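agent> fetching stored inputs for the adenosine-5'-triphosphate docking request
agent> found them:
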Amino acid sequence: MGNDRFAIELHDVTKRYPGGVTAVDALDLRVPEGTVFGFLGPNGAGKTTTMRMLVGLVRPTSGRIRVLGQPPGTPDQLARVGALIESPAFYPHLSGVDNLRLAARYASVPDSAADRVLAEVGLTGRARSAFRTYSLGMKQRLGVAAALLKEPSLLILDEPTNGLDPAGVSEIRELLRSLGQHGRTVLLSSHVLGEVEQVCDRIAVINRGRLVADGTSDELRAALGAGELLIAADPVDKAAACLRDHRSVRGVETVDGRLRVSADPALAAELNRRLVEAGIDVRELRPVRHSLEEAFLELTGPDRAGREESTTMTGGSR
Ligand SMILES: Nc1ncnc2c1ncn2[C@@H]1O[C@H](COP(=O)(O)OP(=O)(O)OP(=O)(O)O)[C@@H](O)[C@H]1O
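agent> prediction call returned; pasting tokens
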């Protein structure tokens, strides 16, 4: 049984809370097995609600969810999913290893699993220190360790870097990379693009409960029309004509005496050669790429999402 290609599948999933908030709105999402998958969106986008639905903590209002080929929350599925969704409750006065031994008992796995997962998150050296003495980054890593106790094939981590300083973030980032090895699927949410970009194979962006983009970081850039070259060449008209003749060039515009060329930046060397062979002087040629940050802001920015609210403003000072 089960699906052998997608660890997570959501079809047309909506969650409306009793107060009337639609936290997740007709969401379609597929997380391929064995990927580290970034689930990105601004605060309130619906990430936590989605993750809670995946483990059966929240029931969808409508739609269909399969996690490891099963509906969420079955005992068999929960045995194969490790989740860090809310801060786990650790005892401040107990050591890291004692906290994990307790968690191991709750999860019905042998106590010895505690040492294995401590090593996996790089906390062996501090295993015997009291939890309250841990840095925030170490606390988060202990949370990840607890999620690993069951040797899950799917790991769901809700904003594991939230509130960490840059050093803590880079500690966790190293860890997240290593968690995706051995065929494990990792679903990782964040509202900070840089964190998922460096770690994830694929990224889905949600805003106001809706999926607004899904793909590799390169695909997300391409979906936003990124892929431009800036070229300064003489004579500029001849250069423009020469570039327009190239079948992979989508457009050429002259801006302030330079050419903005819509084309895959990978074509840079080829276009340069073509211009030089045509007797054109090339003074400058460089890609002007949208950063993924710009792409993300464009996808989740107020222009896309805030129209209803902005129309309720009654004027006056801003
Ligand atoms: N139990 C609840 N009852 C009512 N509304 C809720 C509940 N939980 C979340 N919401 C609302 O649903 C929307 C989505 O919240 P959710 O926590 O899923 O988003 P998020 O992307 O995880 O954001 P954050 O990063 O801030 O946690 C928000 O408007 C939130 O206020």
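agent> quick read of the result: The domain at 227-288 is CATH 3.30.70.100 (Alpha-Beta Plaits).
agent> awaiting further instructions
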